[in-house]
Amino acid sequence: MEEKWSPLVKARKSIEELWQAVNFRGRCWGLKKDGLNPMRKTNITLGTQREVVVLRQNDERKNGTLKIYEYRRASGTQLGSAVRKKLEEDGLFKNEREV
């Protein structure tokens, strides 16, 4: 009898070598938000100093297939600016940008 593991669990086992090699890694969970959040449920996150990859599993209605999101380091994003502004306002961050 074959064990029934989710595609995301199988993927995590598949990328073990990468999991050990990256600068940071983790599992995180997104909120449902009426099904509108593409990062809902559990996700695998891997990153180096300049790149981040997020691996998530599609809903069962899409046969639980995997989806990969790839990001490169950027500055001046709306979210980053909002976080920076709030932290500066609360005295938790100095406006010294890393290049």
List the helices and strands and how they pair.
Blueprint: H1 7-14, H2 16-21, E1 24-30, E2 41-47, E3 51-57, E4 66-72, H3 78-89
Antiparallel strand pairs: 1-2, 2-3, 3-4
Q: What do these coordinates show?
A:
By secondary structure, this protein is an alpha+beta fold. Helix content is 26%, strand content 28%. A four-stranded antiparallel β-sheet has the order 1-2-3-4. The protein is globular and about 50 Å long.
Features:
single chain, 99 residues, alpha+beta, 3 helices, 4 strands
Q: Number of DSSP strands?
A: 4
Distance between the termini: 53 Å
Helix content: 25-40%
What percent of residues are in strands?
25-35%
| Tally of individual helices | 3
Order of helices and strands: HHEEEEH
Rounded to an integer in angstroms, the radius of gyration calculated over CA atoms is 17 Å
Quick recap of the structure?
The chain is α+β, with helices and mostly antiparallel strands. The chain contains 3 helices and 4 strands.
